[in-house]
Amino acid sequence: MLSELPQLIRDKKVEKDDLMLILNYALLERLKSLDDGVKSLEKELGKRFKSLEREISALRSDVREMHKDLKEMRRELSEKIENMHKDMRERLDLINNQLRVLNANIASTYELTSKVVAMLMAKGTPLPS
Question: What is the pLDDT of residues 87-97, one digit of tens each?
Answer without folding.
Answer: 999 999 999 99
